[in-house]
Amino acid sequence: MITFEDVVKVYPGGSTAVDHLSLELPTGKITTLVGPSGCGKTTSLRMINRMVTPTSGRILIDGEDVAGKDEALLRRGIGYVIQHAGLFPHRTVLDNVATVPVLLGETRRTARTKALVLLERVGLSAEFAKRYPAQLSGGQQQRVGVARALAADPPIMLMDEPFSAVDPVVRAQLHQEFLRLQQDLGKTIAMVTHDIDEAIKLGDHVAVLRAGGHLAQFGTPRELLAEPADDFVASFVGRDRGLRSLSFDTASELPVKPVDGLSLDDAGRPLGWPGPSGLQPTGGAFTKEDSLRTVTDLVISSPVGIAVRVGPDGAADGLVSHHDLADYLASRRS
Amino acid sequence: MNLSYLTDPAHWDLSAPGGIPQLILSHLGYTALALLLGVIIALPVGLYIGHTGKGSFIAINAGNAGRSLPTLGLLMLMVTLLGLGLLPVLIALTVLVIPPILTSAYAGMRTLDHRVVDAARGMGMRSWQVLTRVELPMALPVLMSGFRNAALQVVATATVAAAVGLGGLGRLLIDGLAVNDYSRVLAGAVVVAGLAVLVDLFLALIQRWIVSPGLKGS
Fold this sequence. Notes:
The complex is a heterodimer.
Chain A: E1 2-10, E2 16-25, E3 30-34, H1 41-48, E4 56-61, E5 64-65, H2 71-76, E6 78-82, H3 93-97, H4 99-103, H5 108-121, H6 138-150, E7 156-160, H7 168-185, E8 188-193, H8 196-202, E9 205-210, E10 214-219, H9 221-226, H10 231-237, H11 241-245, E11 263-264, E12 270-275, E13 278-280, E14 285-286, H12 292-301, E15 306-310, E16 316-321, H13 322-333
Parallel strand pairs in A: 3-8, 3-9, 6-7, 7-8, 14-15
Antiparallel strand pairs in A: 1-2, 1-4, 4-5, 9-10, 11-12, 12-13, 15-16
Chain B: H1 4-7, H2 20-52, H3 56-68, H4 71-82, H5 86-110, H6 114-122, H7 127-157, H8 170-178, H9 182-210
Helix pairs in contact in B: 2-5, 2-7, 3-5, 4-5, 5-7, 6-7, 7-9, 8-9
């Protein structure tokens, strides 16, 4: 657990970057720090590994004040990923990844062997090992950056806008892989982003900061969308938050009507809706595990305004019309 | 154009005291000593200024001031103060090589990608590790170009040693002029120019060998 105790950071010019921040980042979870530029999110992150020294207040890792530890040793125990990856251009990918283990006293040989395994873990084949950072795409560099931060298996990872320098398609892919990786590793992660969608998608908890370094709200993504603390958070979370909050609930309790009027194949799988000019595609189907947002989207995009639910075998087992969906959403609210 | 002095095999006798090979050797000796002293003095200062950003006016002005000092004039001044010998020559030549080494060390450090340095610190490198494992290797292409620049200048200018009675390829120029032997003067000029090219080629090879392939083309 990372604890901020009444932390203040005032820069020499007199500008306050962080204003009496108290916060707890739970162990094994991803906490995203999000806010507009100048809200002190990066400063807060960098105070955890002492790249920035607080003006007052304390930061504790598992109850121990970071100020009492040797700077370099503290940092070697904390993974650090920055925007544009910040890879060493003069070292090969493999040696970049091996950096911290070598600092910790491992031989170059063992560090490299481990680094190779890590590269595969972040989705890079062994052929990348001997390349130099300049020979990689932005997305590949970012993967190496993550592998490098993971190399010494630190319990804590600090990530400063790790995915902001890559295009949206690659970013979505990196998000998926990052979440999958985190599921295996269970690191305590603090991640800074200016993108609220990213914060909500990746964070188990989200800390929304506002200009001047005030904490506006700390909560789960669902809490943030359902009950924004004030107008600032509501406007920062943005439009569509009602729709987006549907992503956090599955369709497991959504009542369905019996399958009727839908063309099926021999195994009961949906083929399409009969129309005047032949079968119209259903546009997809949902399962009980899918989110209500997916169901809503299917209802809206369906040619007949009805979404099809399928079982694990792919056979259609129920229908939801927009009336059914609206009734269910209304009943949830009361 | 009379190349007879240059092409006369007798002047290329390896053991002859005034022969071209011996002169080349002493010439290279002055060059190497001046470069060594220059590196010892200017490299740490330039790296420090570049690393901390403190006193950058020194780096910039040293470059300009140093370039405008006439080496021959400085040499004569040193001889007046210190008498004849190797020391005044070394001082004059070292003053010549300090500016390019100092400014390139400064520039090499200033132009480093600060995000990479930040990452290095954030991963737990201590200051000297950041310097030796990240900053220096990354600044090496710029450092080397400054060093090559210095080497070229000092190879060309080390001829002044002969003006105060020492050896080096300047002997061919001074002695040739003294006895109106223009073939000898020409030989001196050609060998100095050739030596400068060879030294630069040699340093280019070293640069290729010590600069990481990851930094090429960037």
